[in-house]
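Two proteins follow. First one:
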Amino acid sequence: MKQIPRQVKSYKNANWSDFKKDLAIFTNTFTAHKHKDLNHLWDMFKAEINRLSTLHIPTRQIKSRADLPWVTHEIVKHIRTRDTLYTKLKR
């Protein structure tokens, strides 16, 4: 089964100085916020962290290794034969 390529964050290439600056600006507005509902404050904090990580931490695309070293040509032939026989059996 083929895996879909996915995005992962590259933390070592992040712009941490700008991340910290933007987080400090948010901290000032967050502490000045008069809303006392804990769930609302948590949602605000989580949304801001997600926004900043999207903004300042680059992503890269990864995919699974297609050529597994233990899967030889002979094994691939056996897998194809197995799959063919299975489809014939289902009919």
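Second one, unrelated to the first:
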Amino acid sequence: MYLADLAQKMISPVGVNAFSRSGTNSQLTIANVPLGRQGIVEGSATLQPPWNQDTTFTQAFVAGGSTTSSVSITSTGPSRFCRVSFPVVWTWP
């Protein structure tokens, strides 16, 4: 699974396509989401640590399905930086 994760990141890296904000709610549109994997959206008021986990999400695996996902988070201040990650899944045979 580790090599598959690495190949997926190189071929079609995950990215934020769009970001919108309405009041204290923000909406991220994330492209190239690995199907069936749990993603984490972390946020911070500055680009410095600490980064706090805002939410988790999973894009269900459906044949011919979309790899784009919309995620809602609550903003806690006038500015919010976000990053998306998919922890490495690796098991010993």
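SUMMARY FIELD: The chain has a mean pLDDT of 82. The longest helix spans residues 2-11.
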